[in-house]
């Protein structure tokens, strides 16, 4: 028997893809990474995943897990060696249970994020994880990278929304931890070990997630600032004025909105682009729309009077709110249309964001005069998508400067006590640089964990902590 024949015996011939059938899954969605694989396998349930893993372990074949393939760091793309099996999780796409008393939803890892949101809404509940790729990314990928999104300010990252996991270990055993418990102090926190591990320690096959009551009303406003310091002041002002109602505070530079306006002229900008910084502020209220709007008007009017914000528009309908959010969600698409940029997903302490941006912008202009600063992100948790565009007319070949740009940005991030990855993960994009920017003891502990749980180095090799780093 061969590996391919054995895989067919587990999942069926129509779910073992080779050649041209496998090709769509062997590159990331930005086409930055292209790999090869012996086969792409589509298991239908957890037991089939476990059987595939056991088989690959017996053959000592590397495994790469993929969900919606929306990642930005190449974490779900195999290497060019062609020795791996890619395990595609999209057939594990069932909602297993909704418990409205416990406020939990249990889902398989291949469920699309939007599918989970809609399943919760049918039960008048909210699953608050929300990001631009929610129509195509999967829960397994969200958990594997500890995704953030636009409502982290109130609800936290994916890690904060997960109560339990089902995981297939590198040996093919099934770790069943789908209890919907808020408290379980019975040893090591295995759930949080697997979340954010990018498939390098095991394969998440299902999760029990937190739900919340649906808000009675939501309000969104777009506001303008004269400086980043004012934006930070408004963040604290909003925390005080809105209290627990504050869900999102999304920062955007004027350049981000300018390129959206250029690339998508049908998306009207409700404010003039006369200021360097803008933010989307979003609140939700459990009582009434009238109360939410009254509070929002009061806070914004006082902020205008105190000269914290320079202009503001409050959405008057759900459609207007959608249009405002669509501006924010269109930034990555516009960025790609004006020229492939060098993307950075970083975090620094909120109090140090303004000097970080000033100093790093200056350093980049000194390195490469005329580069464009494409800065947006989740100001409320210190996470910036600090992207760098080529000078106008110099787009060709600019990506070859990525390593130099990374060093400038990452050096600055560390100087400001930040992290080189906030929500996108490490993948293969930042793997080789990680030891330079993470404490050596932390790296040593991560390697020990990897060695203990995946002694053959078969789980997503070449990502985060590579098996070639070990003395196998």
TrEMBL record:
Enzyme class: oxidoreductase
Gene Ontology molecular function: FAD binding; oxidoreductase activity
Cited InterPro entries: FAD-bd_oxidored_4_C, FAD-bd_PCMH, FAD-bd_PCMH-like_sf, FAD-bd_PCMH_sub1, FAD-bd_PCMH_sub2, FAD-linked_Oxase-like_C, FAD-oxidored/transferase_4, Oxid_FAD_bind_N
Cofactor(s) of this protein: FAD
Biological-process GO terms, alphabetical: respiratory electron transport chain
Boundaries of every FAD-binding PCMH-type domain copy: 33-214
Record key words, sorted: FAD, Flavoprotein, Oxidoreductase
Stated name of the protein: Uncharacterized FAD-linked oxidoreductase Rv2280
């Amino acid at each position: 028997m061969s590996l391919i024949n054995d895989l067919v015996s587990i999942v069926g011939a129509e779910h073992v893809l080779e050649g041209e059938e496998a090709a769509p899954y062997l590159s990331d969605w930005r086409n930055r990474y292209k790999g090869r694989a012996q086969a792409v396998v589509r298991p239908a349930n957890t037991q089939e995943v476990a059987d595939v893993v056991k088989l690959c372990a017996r053959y000592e074949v590397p495994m790469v897990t993929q969900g919606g393939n929306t990642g930005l760091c190449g974490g779900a793309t195999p290497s060019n060696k062609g020795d791996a099996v890619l395990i595609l999780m999209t057939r594990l796409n069932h909602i297993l249970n909704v418990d409205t008393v416990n406020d939990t939803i249990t889902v398989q890892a291949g469920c699309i994020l939007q599918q989970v949101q809609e399943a919760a809404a049918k039960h008048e509940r909210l699953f608050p994880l929300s990001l631009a790729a929610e129509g195509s990314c999967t829960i397994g990928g969200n958990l594997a990278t500890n995704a953030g999104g636009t409502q982290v300010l109130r609800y936290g990252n994916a890690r904060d929304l997960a109560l339990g996991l089902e995981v297939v270990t590198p040996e093919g055993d099934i770790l069943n931890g789908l209890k919907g418990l808020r408290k379980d102090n019975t040893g090591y926190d295995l759930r949080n070990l697997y979340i954010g591990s990018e498939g390098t320690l095991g394969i998440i096959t299902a999760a029990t997630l937190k739900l919340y009551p649906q808000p009675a009303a939501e309000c969104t406003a777009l506001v303008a600032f004269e400086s980043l310091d004012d934006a930070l002041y408004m963040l604290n002002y909003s925390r005080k004025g809105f209290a627990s109602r504050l869900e999102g505070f999304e920062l955007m530079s004027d350049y981000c909105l300018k390129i959206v306006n250029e690339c998508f002229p049908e998306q009207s900008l409700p404010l003039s682009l006369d200021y360097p910084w803008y933010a989307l502020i979003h609140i939700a209220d459990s009582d009434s729309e009238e109360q939410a709007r009254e509070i929002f008007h009061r806070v914004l009017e006082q902020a205008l009077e105190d000269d914290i914000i320079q202009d503001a528009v409050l959405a008057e309908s759900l459609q207007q709110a959608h249009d405002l959010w669509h501006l924010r969600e269109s930034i990555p698409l516009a960025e790609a249309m004006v020229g492939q940029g060098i993307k950075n997903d970083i975090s620094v302490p909120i109090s140090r964001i303004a000097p970080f941006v000033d100093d790093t912008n200056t350093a980049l202009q000194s390195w490469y005069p005329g580069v464009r600063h494409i800065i947006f992100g989740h100001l409320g948790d210190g996470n910036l998508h600090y992207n760098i565009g080529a000078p106008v007319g110099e787009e060709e070949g600019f990506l070859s400067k990525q390593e130099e740009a990374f060093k400038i940005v990452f050096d600055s991030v560390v100087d400001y006590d930040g992290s080189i990855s906030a929500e996108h993960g490490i993948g293969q994009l930042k793997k080789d640089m990680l030891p330079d920017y993470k404490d050596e003891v932390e790296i040593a502990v991560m390697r020990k964990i990897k060695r203990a749980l995946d002694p053959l180095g078969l789980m997503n090799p070449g990502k985060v902590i590579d098996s070639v780093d070990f003395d196998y």
